[in-house]
Design brief:
The chain is α+β, with helices and mostly antiparallel strands and 186 residues long. The chain has 2 domains: 1-45; 46-176, no CATH class. The chain is 27% helix and 33% strand. The protein contains 5 helices and 9 strands, in the order ααββαβββββββαα. Strands 1, 2, 3, 6 and 7 form a 5-stranded mixed sheet that branches. It has a 4-stranded antiparallel sheet with strand order 5-4-8-9. The two termini are 25 Å apart.
Length: 186
């Protein structure tokens, strides 16, 4: 339950930044801080948000060059990091049934870090999907998330959620179910 003033403040910020592309791109990075997600899902309705972010990893060439430099006594060569993949889409399965997202989203994710130790300048897409609050629960039996990358959309990576995670997500929405039982009659 969020405070009224917080909701008003979030709306004001949205109004102020709507016309300014610079503010949205540079100063207001909603995904840097998970607390700001609610601004993007309307009137604080109960939803399950799943964010899929590709990993940064050191390139093969970088590992080779750094080991070469190290063998010559130079340990100050920065590691070159790049994103492992670009997010294409994801599927959420409750048992064998696919849960349709309310909103399937893709967000550009830009990294530009140059220090003595690291050189990471790259951009990728990450997934940001919104699902109904009752998408996941013990009644599913088995819950899995299948992710697809842009490079090879036919190749999938599947993550199975353990029972503990399923129960935790289900319990997070318990107070909503008790307040709105009619909304979730199957």
């Amino acid at each position: 339950m969020e405070k009224e003033s917080e909701i008003r403040a979030a709306k004001e910020k949205g109004k102020r930044n709507r016309k300014s592309e610079v503010a949205v791109q540079d100063s207001f990075r909603p995904l840097d801080d998970l607390k700001n997600w609610e601004v993007y899902v309307g009137e604080y309705k109960p939803v399950l948000l799943i964010r899929a972010t590709p990993k940064l990893q050191e390139t093969g060439g970088s590992i080779f060059l750094r080991s070469l430099a190290a063998s010559g006594g130079a340990y100050n060569v920065p590691a070159k990091l790049r994103f492992k993949a670009d997010f294409y889409k994801m599927k959420l399965l409750c048992g064998s049934k696919e849960v349709m997202p309310i909103l399937p989203g893709k967000i550009a994710h830009v990294v530009d870090v140059r220090s003595g130790l690291v050189n990471a300048t790259d951009a990728t897409y990450e997934g940001f999907y919104e699902y109904p609050a009752d998408s996941i629960g013990p009644s599913c039996g088995h819950v899995s998330l299948t992710l697809y990358g842009e490079k090879d959309p036919n190749k999938a990576f599947t993550k199975n959620l353990d029972d503990k995670s399923i129960t935790r997500i289900f319990n997070d929405f318990a107070s909503y179910r008790s307040q709105h039982p009619a909304d979730h009659a199957h």
